[in-house]
Every structure is written in structure tokens, then in C-alpha cells.
Design goal:
The structure is a single chain. By secondary structure, this protein is of the alpha/beta class. The chain has one domain: Rossmann fold, CATH 3.40.50.720. The chain has 4 helices and 5 strands. The protein has a 5-stranded parallel sheet, with helices on both faces. β1, α1 and β2 form a beta-alpha-beta unit. It is globular and about 40 Å long.
Amino acid sequence: MKIVITGVAGFIGANLAERLLRDGHRVIGIDNLAYGLRSNIPEGVEFHQLDIRGKEMYPLFAGTDAVFHFAAKNCIADCQADPVETADINVRGTVDVFEAARLGGVRKVIYAESSAIYEGAKTYPTPETDEAPESFYPYNDT
């Protein structure tokens, strides 16, 4: 399968890429390296240093079987300091990923929600019904 991972230089994206490569899939990685590290990206990933807020990435989605969307501004302190930029990256960027997938004929997009929706939870393991956000961030990411 041909799989696109946005946020491939982050912890989750890089680990997923490693697993998918090991399973024999072709992995296209997109990351602007604002929060992730180039050194995290496994060898074998077809890496493109691009921002998810733009049409430059659209051609990469053509003929793709699935997209894992992990790219986001995720440092809560930075997000609180600049909520407008956070919304631009996390909301408009996600719209661009969905549009690229639609135009590329992608049949499956897996979108990761923020765990910050549960940041104030008191029960562990936390049931999905126990939402307890302590910042605006989780609402900006859903």
C-alpha cells in the first residue's frame, strides 16, 4: 500500500512509519519540522518537508491508499500564547489534508484526536466519556 503520514517527524508518526515500512508498505512522509525532528524519520520514508497548509502537498496524495494525519501544533503553552496561529495550523491545515485526500482519491483518512481533551481527568484508565479539558487546545484540534 502507498500510505501518507503527516507529522512523520513526530513521535507517533515516526513510529508508525517504521512499522509500516517493516510491513512492506510505501510511506510518504510530510512534516515541516517545526515540532518534529528530521532524525526521527526512519530510513525508507519518502520525506517531503512541507507545511500542511498549502497545495504543494496535494500531488503526493494521488494514488494513495490511506492517510494518517498527525501534523499539528501541539505544545499547549505555545498554543495558548498564539491561538490564532494554532487554529490556522490545526484547523485550516487539517482541511487542506482532507482536500488533498479527496482530490487524490484516497479512500481512508485516519485522524488522530488530541489526548488533551482528557488532561484533567481523575480516572485511570480514562473512559472516553470523561472529558476534562483544562485549556482551549483540544477544542481547536477536533
